[in-house]
Amino acid sequence: MARRLDVPDLVERARRGEPLAVGRLLSLVESDGPAGREQLREVAAALAPHAGRAHVVGLTGPPGVGKSTTTSALVGALRAQGRRVGVLAVDPSSPFSGGALLGDRVRMGEHATDDGVFIRSMATRGHLGGLAWSTPQALRVLDAAGCEVVVIETVGVGQSEVEVVALADTTVVLLAPGMGDGVQAAKAGILEVADVFVVNKADRDGAAQTVRDLTHMLALGGSVGPQVWRKPVVRTVAARGEGIDDLVAALDSHRAWLDSSGERERRRLARAEAEIEAITLDRIRSRIGDLRGSSGLSGLAKRVVAGDLDPYRAADELAGNVGS
Ligand code: GDP
What we know:
alpha/beta; 12% strand; 2 domains; seven-stranded parallel β-sheet; 324 residues; Rossmann fold; binds guanosine-5'-diphosphate; 14 helices; single chain
């Protein structure tokens, strides 16, 4: 049985940027089970007044496109400007949980000893609701710890992309020449969700063509007006750190646009709504699971099968029992 931690004290220490306290809080928000849930509530309550300042950048794209190389270069550029940075590498397919610090240190080797960088792998496989539970809280931990920018990098593909977009202020989509990029990206609806495009591996043949295809597609779909964000296409050679300053500039100008257009507020409200909804649904599901006997799901099902009750009445009863 783990010793109970003094959560408000941890939050205070995390706000001063103590790596150990930040690490502990991240582990707390990742822990599952009833005890974990209880502590999660405590952590959420203690963090609430200190969150909402960080610029959350979601970074997504197909495997091998250069996401982790770009993230590492981006961290370097932001650190060079003296900004504190957090990185959450989200891997929905990984069974390894948050303490995968060794892997992180290897992966982001050059930043491992920098006190201004917090890096964490989040394994979400098997967690109810995937990212829904732990990632928003992990974001708040890094936010409270004074990270000006938090990068959420998806390691996996598919659903995680969508979920990352839902969490980010600014979504960056990485493409690379010769990866079936342009057309496929359009199919995946990625043109709409991206705020900033990066064409990485610009040292390779076909990079100029990829930029042209993308720019063309954006022009076709683009609307104009003072409140409209024009999605930039940034070329990078992440492996050599080239173009990363342009990426930082694009992120900063998107952040400024979010504030001036009111879009940041709108996105944050939508995010809070989704989070409240997810927590409520989860709670209802677990209440349904707790109900046993005639008031529970299986008891009601028996009565429906026996013809004593129609499923709508059964649902009314179940909802009543859940609420009581
Ligand atoms: P991820 O799977 O999207 O995270 O991609 P990685 O960052 O692991 O990069 C995949 C491979 O591409 C690695 O071998 C990198 O060294 C390489 N790579 C990353 N950026 C560039 C680049 O700008 N140019 C070239 N030629 N290779 C790159």
